[in-house]
Amino acid sequence: MGGKRSQVSHRTIRSPGFRAVRMAPVFLLVLVALTVQPALAATWGPYNASTLRCIYAADTAGTSSGGITGTLRLGAYSTSSVYARVLAAFPTTGMPGPALITGGTFTAVHSAYANYSSTVTITVSIFPITRSWTSSATWTTYDGTNTWTTPGGQKGSALNGTQTFVGNPSDYPVKTWTWTATGVDYRYGIEMQSQQEGSISYRKGVGNGGSEGGAPTLTLTYNPLAAPGSAAVGTVTTSSIQWKWNDISNEDGFRVYDASSGGTNKSGNLAANTVSWTESGLSPNTSYTRYPCGYSFNYEGPRTALPTTVTLSVPPSTSTVTCDKPTNTWSKGPFTFTAVGGFGAGKVQYYRYAWDKSPTHTWSGSESQWSSGTLECNATSNGSWYLHVKGYNSANVENGTLDLGPYYYEGTAPTVDNVTTTPENVGSTGNYLKGKMWVGAEVADEGGSGLASVQIKLDNGDYQTMPAKEGGDPGEYEKEYTIDASWANGTHSVTIRATDGAGNMTTSEPVEFEVNKNEVSGTIGLQGFTSALTYRDVVLVLNGTTAKVVNLGFVNGVSAYSIVDVPDLTSISAKTAWSLRKKMSVSAEDGQYVANFIGSNVVRGGDLNGDNVVNALDYSVLRGAWGSGSAGDINGDGYTDNADYLILKANWYGKGDAQ
Ligand SMILES: [Ca+2]
Ligand SMILES: [Ca+2]
Ligand SMILES: [Ca+2]
Ligand SMILES: [Ca+2]
Fold it and tell me: How do beta strands 368-370 and 309-310 pair?
């Protein structure tokens, strides 16, 4: 400072140029040369006349016009040139390091017309300008267009150091302002204001320049902000990270950003000397990098990258790891586990897992990893199984374990043995006739889960429950069927399926059986037969080929008959001893044929020799047996006599049907 002040020399202001100016009718000229001296760090400046931007006004009304550039004056130059206010800009663009200008020292020379002999007084205040402005600024606008909030210059409170010059100008008294900014930055410049504003008169003023006096000086002080030192992160959770850094000097506080430049201020304004901040609301298993910086006033210091940190993964729970099989429930596996929501940022990076029969697990850190898709676990022995998982984030930091289970596994299928079918009625070839049929089986299960169901199906029908056999031994099952007219003839089968509590299933081979439930029935009437109960063998021929002999008891010449185990029929014929054969066509879709040999289909008598015609040969037989009952008793009354003859006669030359 002393060096600067030494520049204000009488030698300078009495230069030839000064004298020329002094010859002007009036003179008071203030000129300020501005320089900036580094307070704490770098040197900035010096300013020179060409870097200054100045406006002036004659009084508070701003009625005077005109500006000056490159020279800072305050006071009266002439009665028509009174500078009550002066705005001075001193560019700080490029000032090394962000910093708040916190103060300054301004030194100016009280100058007056050299021949002016009276003592002159001027009191000068300095204010910080609180917004940017341009060299087009006027009394009312800061850029020639937009108005100041306060006409005459938008400014903060007066900086301390108001000075009053008193003295004879020839003394060129030097005054120095030294101030400290409080809560406002005067990066935008300063306003020098005469407290005699409105009454400044000729030949008094402050400031100088060139030939009019020594050059004043301006020294700015500012606080540079260093980058905070990086420190290890503190507590990390699934949703928060405690960021830490080292303190710096001069800061009003700290801010934490999410980028090395630009980005978002995540922390807001933190207090001075803050060295940690816990950021919450973060996503699990997500990588974050933060950049704290100090700030002072409107300025921020350089940012420091803190260690990139990954939040913890979501700890495993029964909500985040699920199985397709319930616990405490038998199944045959496999056990498929799902990481609900999957893996990755916001969730869990991977699990380590163990699948075993122990309810708990001691972690070694070398367990297999599960990092995508589903996890299928297969049990290798019957009993209780458990899945143990431990979650990790992408930085391989674990967070939480979970034991799932028990899952009851067994893989031993039931046994189905001794499947039998037993018909109530069986035909000549072993075929099952109409009537009941019982299917039996012996079913058992091992492995622990026990039998859950025993089912049976007939042919390709649906499975039905096969009940335990009434009165049977444990493990014996029996199903009763009734073969009726609705059954189709032919091969049928039953299949038994047993399932245990774990879902293991055994299905027997189909057991086949043959069904032929056809039958033919009806009544047979013998022409002219006795009314008393009398038995006759009747030869029934099926489809002209298969003969069935039945012994029937006739009452009133009529007898019912029924033959089971017959093939599908198209015809049936009937014949007894001493009768003509009678044949009938039959049809029935369900195999239940009816043929009534009565009325016009009655079995006619007279064929005594069995050649199925009635002629003289039969008559000869009748005559031979006349009076006895052995050979010609057509009507069954025990005698061969005229009654039999009449039947023969009635059918004379009659011919029976083919078989
Ligand atoms: Ca500090
Ligand atoms: Ca089993
Ligand atoms: Ca005959
Ligand atoms: Ca007779």
Answer: unpaired
**Which ligand sits nearest to residue 413's alpha carbon?**
2
* Centre of ligand 4 from the C-alpha of residue 556, in Å: 14
Cα distance between residue 545 and residue 575, in whole Å: 14
Ligand that comes closest to the CA of residue 643 = 4
Cα 171 to the chain's mean position, in Å? Answer: 86
Q: What is the dihedral of CA 647, 652, 653, 656, to 10 degrees?
A: -10
Amino acid occupying residue 622: L
Ion ligand 1 neighbours (CB, 5 A) are: 247, 273
- Give pLDDT tens digits for 161-201: 666 766 555 555 666 666 666 666 667 777 877 777 666 55
How far is the C-alpha of 413 from the C-alpha of 502, rounded, in Å?
A: 9
Q: Are 256 and 330 in contact (CB under 8 A)?
A: no
- 25: phi > 0 → left, psi -120 to 50 → alpha, else beta; which? alpha
Whether omega for the bond prior to residue 216 falls within 30 degrees of 0, making it cis, is: no
Alpha helices in 412-547 (DSSP H): none
Question: d(Cα 275, Cα 591) in Å, to the nearest integer?
Answer: 102
Please give the Cα distance from 24 to 13 (Å, whole number). Answer: 15
176/515: higher pLDDT = 515
Give whole-number Cα distances, 77 to 31, 73, 108, 138, 471, in Å: 12, 9, 16, 20, 135
35-39, 111-115, 345-349, 577-581: lowest mean pLDDT where? 35-39
Beta carbons within 8 Å of 365's beta carbon, 6+ residues apart: 352
Count CB neighbours of 612 within 10 A. 16
Residue with tokens 């009806």: 522
Indicate the DSSP class of residue 484.
Answer: -
Provide the CA 284 distance to its chain's centre, in angstroms: 15
Angle between helical axes of 642-650 and 616-625 (0-180°, round to 10): 170
Q: Which of 624, 619, 587, 582 is nearest to 602 (CA)?
A: 582
DSSP β-ladder status, 287-288 and 253-257: unpaired
Phi, psi of 378, deg, nearest 5: -115, 130
Kindly give the distance from the C-alpha atom of residue 128 to the centroid of ligand 1, in angstroms, as a whole number: 26
CA of 647, nearest ligand number: 4
For 595-637, where are the alpha helices, taking DSSP H only? 616-625
- Ligand approaching nearest to the C-alpha of 443: 2
User: In this structure, what token pair is assigned to residue 545?
Assistant: 């080929």
- pLDDT, residue 130, reads 84
CB–CB of 482/436 below 8 Å? Answer: yes
Domain annotation for the chain: domains and CATH numbers: 2-224 (no CATH), 229-310 (2.60.40.10), 321-409 (2.60.40), 415-499+510-515 (2.60.40), 519-650 (2.60.40.4130)
Residue 86 and residue 391: Cα distance in Å, rounded? 69
pLDDT the model gives residue 171: 58
**Phi, psi for residue 623 in degrees, rounded to 5:** -60, -40
